[in-house]
Design a protein that fits this description.
Length: 457
């Protein structure tokens, strides 16, 4: 339970600092839906998801109103469709995606994740079919999200899958060219993907998870910024160690709020509670920015020298605060730096403070990777694959999750704007070196072996 003091501080966060529960995500196993008959499979999926999620939105709203803490997004994550739909071809898997989209619409959730495959060590027939279905599936649905895990510290990097994803991203962009390639905004390529992510586009329900589970994603970059601002106003001589302590305590309070809401939602739905993902996930709203925290810490802009060190401090303090607040911390848990979804970060990219190279460097210490990065539409699939491979290497060698959500905006070049709308925001297209080249390295294919760090047994 929250103490009286924590309740008062929480009320202040709600009133002035953009505190909310960013997402309550219901994970649903679809393994019992399996069938060799496509119509039967789609029927089973519809019945199972509807049965478990029909009250999700109402319960989230009711619990949020009870505590005065808004639950902004309600979402569903399902078992990897590459496994559930393994017997089927790509065109059949597109139909399954449409079923997922229809059910998500019926139960009024924002997104449904799990159009996914895990191919870090090799690509099975069902995996290949799902990957080939992704462009059309994302173009013809609004709420379906896809994720592909192409690397892990234990397995290495599946370079054949990396190159394939370079082509798939290009195709997904072209099929949604009239919307600045928004299909790619619903597609993440991962290394070391967790099984319990509540945030989109990466959310899916891992094979080791229960039949049904509630995972919660809290946020609060505005809360952290205000805490830093207050502390420095009271004592301008605070050093970084003491500021880290303040961020840690703030993350503790935010995590406690998230778990309180998540547990009550789970209890009302009679579904097991899973984890709190305490990631600092920004929105395009003023005052709800991770980038602004960097300025509060004394940097001119996110992206200037010192930014990677500041992000390391922020990520570490958030994780420590959350781990102390709850025994059920999971998902990604850290600081996101999504370029289009954060007003301040988007402006830093537009002003030239953030390029693809600096973003890549910062992903070595953030909780995700190259997130919502708009790049020129003429970027070749080999170059896109090269960017993904570099990001996967950071994750694999550092035993952390990294991901790429890259959007090659059709018909647009560096410096122009891409508009995605809503939570996805807008972004200035970032230049990419060697954009149109087709380097042979990626076409060598095969598996980059797991690093020595993998030998932990």
């Amino acid at each position: 339970m929250l103490t009286d003091r924590e309740i008062i501080e929480t009320l202040e966060m709600l009133k002035n600092e953009h505190l909310d529960v960013r997402t309550v995500t219901l994970g649903i196993s679809l393994t019992t839906c399996a069938s060799h008959d496509l119509d039967r499979l789609r029927h089973n999926i519809r019945v199972r998801i509807t049965h478990l999620s029909k009250n999700l939105v109402d319960v989230c709203d009711r619990v949020g109103q009870k505590y005065g803490i808004p639950v902004v997004n309600k979402r569903i994550a399902v078992s990897p469709i590459a496994i559930v739909g393994a017997p089927f071809k790509s065109d059949n898997l597109v139909e399954i995606a449409k079923t997922l989209n229809d059910v998500a619409t019926e139960v009024h959730v924002d997104f449904i994740g799990g159009f996914s495959a895990l191919v870090e060590k090799g690509t099975a027939t069902g995996d290949r079919a799902l990957i080939e279905a992704i462009p059309q599936a994302l173009a013809e649905t609004e709420r379906v999200c896809a994720s592909i895990n192409v690397a892990s510290t234990k397995a290495g990097i599946n370079m054949d899958a990396v190159l394939l994803m370079g082509r798939i991203i290009k195709e997904a962009a072209e099929l949604t060219a009239d919307r600045d390639g928004i299909g790619c905004a619903k597609l993440c390529v991962f290394a070391n993907i967790p099984q319990d992510i509540p945030f989109m586009a990466g959310a899916y329900l891992g094979i080791g998870e229960p039949d049904a589970v509630i995972n919660v994603g809290v946020s609060g970059p505005g809360v952290v910024k205000k805490a830093v601002d207050r502390a420095l106003a009271a004592d301008p001589n605070l050093d970084l160690g003491r500021l880290s302590e303040i961020i840690k305590k703030t993350a503790y309070r935010v995590t406690r709020v998230g778990e309180l809401i998540g547990r009550e939602v789970a209890e009302n739905l009679r579904i097991r509670f899973g984890v709190v993902d305490l990631s600092l996930a920004p929105t395009p709203n003023v005052g709800d920015s991770v980038g602004e925290i960097f300025q509060s810490l004394g940097l001119t802009n996110i992206g200037v020298p010192g930014s990677t060190a500041a992000l390391a401090l922020l990520n570490d303090a958030v994780k420590k605060g959350g781990a102390f607040a709850s025994s059920h911390v999971g998902g990604l848990s850290g600081a996101f730096i999504p370029v289009s979804e954060d007003l301040n970060i988007a402006q830093a990219a537009a002003d030239g403070y953030l390029g693809i190279e600096k973003l890549e460097a910062m992903t070595s210490v953030c909780s995700v990777g190259l997130d919502m990065v708009a790049i020129p539409g003429n970027t070749s699939e080999e170059t896109i694959a090269g960017i993904i491979a570099d990001e996967m290497a950071i994750g694999v060698c550092n035993r952390k999750t990294t991901a790429c959500r890259l959007i090659p905006v059709p018909g647009k070049s560096a410096g122009q704007k891409a508009y995605f709308g809503g939570l996805l925001g807008k972004a200035t297209i970032i230049p990419v070196k060697n954009a149109e080249k087709r380097d042979r390295f990626l076409k060598l294919g095969g598996l980059i072996p797991a690093p020595i760090q993998s030998l932990t047994n």
